[in-house]
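Q: What structure does this chain adopt?
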Amino acid sequence: MKRVLATLLVLLLLAPAAALALTGQSYTTFSDYYRENVTFINDNDNRHLLPLVLSQRASGDNDGRTLYELIGDVLSVTVTADSAGVVEECEIRLTAPQGLAYGTTLYNDFAISGYHSYAFLMAMDVHEDPAARYGLVTDVVEGMRSQEGSYARQLGAYTLTCSRENTTAVLSFRNNGVPLETPVPEPTETPAPGESTAPDGASPLPETEETVNPEDYIG
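A:
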């Protein structure tokens, strides 16, 4: 009886740890799929792309997380993996440089970065066939076009949020198993009735909403 109780106690103690384990795309699979996607794009679009290399470093918070990064003026990729190697977050940013004109060297370099952004996007898809993974590219492009640059959907264990900020397209994956951190607002003084918070007695500025022209982005 004591042995049975001891076994149950061990199982109960281990249950919370097991429940906290993330599910989702492992970084190893992400990296392998990215390379396969580059080959797929080369074969289908007659390209000669070489896979890009992401730098690797510990998060610095002693939490076991690993950060993988590619920082560039046109293409930036940031991937955060937990201690088990499961991707928690993945952000892909593609920026169209100034003075972009079709047929120029600048345009060709941008097109190459665009193909790599497709390959990284496809790497978050779980399908084993690259052709099936390419369906995610089609879905995102059509979704952003139909919704004027803003699109969101679920992809397995992830929420994928796509947006366009001026000439930058941002594709962001977040693992649904990672708890959201709610920022705690700093305490502020409450003005007395009739007292304005604007400096020198000036009237508070009205809130304005910046509009983004979807055609500003070239991609």
